[in-house]
Structure formats: C-alpha cells, structure tokens
Design a protein that fits this description.
Order of helices and strands: EEEHEEHEHHHHHEHEHEEHHHEEE
CATH superfamily of the largest domain: P-loop containing nucleotide triphosphate hydrolases
Pfam families: ABC_tran, oligo_HPY
Shape: globular
Strand order of the largest sheet: 6-7-8-3-9-10-11
Membrane topology: Peripheral membrane protein
Distance between the termini: 44 Å
Number of helices: 12
Subcellular location: Cell membrane
Strand content: 15-25%
Helix content: 25-40%
Largest sheet: 7 strands, mixed
Number of domains: 2
Protein name: Oligopeptide/dipeptide ABC transporter ATPase
Keywords: ATP-binding, Cell inner membrane, Cell membrane, Membrane, Nucleotide-binding, Translocase, Transport
C-alpha cells in the first residue's frame, strides 16, 4: 500500500537575487515498510523535498504546485492544526544537524517526553518512562541519568541518537532522515545507520533516507531516486542502480565513491559544479558537466522515460531515467559499461568505458567528440 505519494511538486524561493528553482516537477512514492533513498550533491533539492513533505517550507520559500498525499490525504490542503497532529507523530524527521535540532536550554529527555505527552496524551511519569526506554534502545548509556542532561553534555553521536529517539517516540509511519550521519565519525555512522534500519523494522516504519553517499544507500535502501538541480534524473531499485546505472550523473556519483585498496592518486570527480538554481542551463541541466552531451542536450529537457522503450513510464515501471539517449536523440550514445568484479570480501560494481582500459567507475567518453 502506498503511504506517501508526491506528484509534480514544485518549490521556489523568492530572493533579492532572483527566483531559486529548488524543486521542479518532482514525483515519487513510498510504500509502507519501504526504505527509499534520495541522493545527489548539495543543492540537488533533497532537503527541500523533505521539508515540503513535513510542510516546513517558510518564506521566502513557497510550494508553487503539486500534491503530497499521505495515507490518501493531501498534506498541502490540511489546516495548521491537522498538519501539527501529523508532524512528529505519523511523520517524523531526523534533521541534518542534531546540535541545532535540540533546544540547548532544556534537558534532552524533557524534549523527547514533551512530544510523547503532546501526541500520545501520556502523563508525565509515563512519558518519562517511555523516553528512558527509547534512549536506552538507541544506545544512550545510563539512560535514566542522561535523561536530565542538556544537549551540550552529549557527544555528537549521542545527540544524533537522541534525535532518532525523538523521531521514533510516537511510532511514526514515515521516518525522514536528512543526512543523519553528517556530524558523526565513521564508527558512530555505522551504529546510527544500523539503529535506523533495525528500529524501522521493529516499528514497521517506512524510511526516506536523504544522503549524498551512495555507499550508505547500498547498505540499507530498497529503492533510490537520484536528484540533480531540483529534478529527478533516475529512479530504480537499489541493485539495478548499481548494476545497471542509466544516467551519466549517476555514473559520476558512483565513480566518486572511495574504495579500500584503490591505488589511484586522485578520486574520480564530476567536472564542474551544480548550476545556479536561479539561472538553470537550457535543455538538460546536467549537459554542461556531461561528457556525452550533444547539441540536442542544450535544446531539449529530457523527460523521465523507460530506458528500454524510450516512452513515458507506466505506473509499474521500476527503472526510469531522464536522458535523451533513450528517446533516440543522441548520435554517439553513452559509451560506458558496467563491470562486476569479485573480491574476497564483497562484489564490486563498476562502470567503465567500453574499451575496458579503465577499471574504476569513470564519467568520461573514449573520445572528445561528445563534449559540449
């Protein structure tokens, strides 16, 4: 059953410098119990999408159009009282920076207990007991004592765990995690991700995981949406995305993942930077950075299509991508291929030019004719 369905969402920010096109015609859905990854560089529109679902877009931002259905009800048409009853209760969010998400002048435990009292109508003693159980569940040591500690008395990892406990306090149906491991070390990152995964399974919660790290997505997600400059450029089940990436931007992201045992002097990168969202490039927004771009890419904005047929995807289409290659408008095509390498510890999926001369994932063409 579809829990969340976002259709044609467009969000803009009206600034003194101009109109920022933060999210454009975005559509996706999340099923109950699903773990849905949203990936892309900074500025891709990932966090704006999450804040739109929570209806937390504030001036100068404005949701221009679209529909956000949660359990069949349009969040954008709800009253403030209705959305407040859902926010933090049925839909919770783990914010990117735990230090700013926690109020510095209130004990951590009291902040969590307040949500429980508000949404679940618990008494003070029962709310405190549930809070201590949650703190213990997410791995806060000596939870009864730490209940009364202030945020500055928690380490970065413990603050992040407290935010997760707060998000899970009311057994939400949907948990939105916005870069949940940004401020923690790699050891704590692994623990936080494991806790999100196990707790989501325990509470039968759907998860929308926002990240720029495809390695994290590979570990815990079922499906993935890749965003670029406010638009989705590829959607696929996680295994298909890694074994058969269809968009050059996805290949570029995969190529930049550092690997143990990599003997290259420098990591592969995508040339250039994310475009100015006030003045987006014409045609395909990725074309200034794409080694396969042709003249058609500067004129035509590609739609999401079924790569196999080049036509508008059906409702049950699982893998879709926005590239003119699949509508027959590119002359030279995309000359990379996927290589699967066996190792003693894992199976590595890499993309490389068809010549096979480069082993790692690489966003480049075998000749210079495709650059625009």
């Amino acid at each position: 059953m579809t829990l969340l369905e976002v259709t044609d969402l467009t969000v803009k920010f009206y600034t003194e410098k101009g109109v920022v096109n933060a999210v454009n015609d975005l559509s996706f859905s999340i099923e109950r119990g699903d773990t849905f990854g949203v990936v892309g560089e900074s500025g891709a529109g990932k966090s704006v999408t999450a804040h739109s679902v929570m209806r937390l877009i504030e001036r100068p931002g404005h949701i221009e159009s679209g529909e956000i259905l949660f359990k069949g009800e349009n969040i954008l048409e709800m009253s403030e009282a209705e959305i407040r009853s859902i926010r933090g209760n049925e839909i919770s969010m783990v914010f990117q920076d735990a230090q700013t998400a926690l109020n510095p002048v209130y004990p951590v435990g009291e902040q969590i207990a307040e949500m429980i009292r508000h949404h679940l109508d618990y008494g003070k003693a029962d709310a405190k007991e549930r809070t201590i159980q949650l703190l213990d569940t997410v791995g806060i040591p000596d939870a009864p004592t730490r209940y009364s500690d202030y945020p500055h008395e928690f380490s970065g990892g413990m603050q992040q765990r407290a935010i997760i406990a707060m998000a899970l306090s009311c057994d939400p149906d949907l948990l939105i995690c916005d870069e949940p491991t940004t401020a923690v070390d790699v050891t704590t990152e692994a623990k936080v991700l494991a806790e999100i995964e196990s707790l989501a399974a325990e509470f039968d919660t759907a998860v929308q995981l926002i990240t720029h790290d495809l390695g994290i997505v590979a570990d815990i997600c079922d499906r993935v949406m890749v965003m670029y400059a406010g638009r989705p450029v590829e959607k696929a089940p996680v295994e298909e995305l890694y074994y058969d990436p269809k968009h050059p931007y996805t290949v570029g992201l995969m190529s930049s993942i550092p690997r143990i045992g990599d003997d290259r002097d420098r990591l592969q990168t995508i040339p250039g930077t994310m475009p100015d969202l006030i003045e987006l490039p014409s045609g395909c927004t990725f074309h200034p950075r794409c080694p396969y771009a042709e003249e058609a890419c500067t004129r035509t904005e590609p739609a999401l299509v079924d790569p196999e047929t080049g036509t508008e995807p059906t409702n049950d289409a699982e893998h879709i991508a926005a590239c003119l290659e699949y509508t027959g408008e590119l002359n030279a095509g995309l000359d990379y291929e996927v290589q699967v390498r066996e190792s003693t510890t894992d199976e590595r999926v890499e993309a490389a030019p068809e010549s096979g001369s480069v082993a790692e994932t690489e966003l480049s063409s075998t000749d210079g004719d495709h650059d625009d």
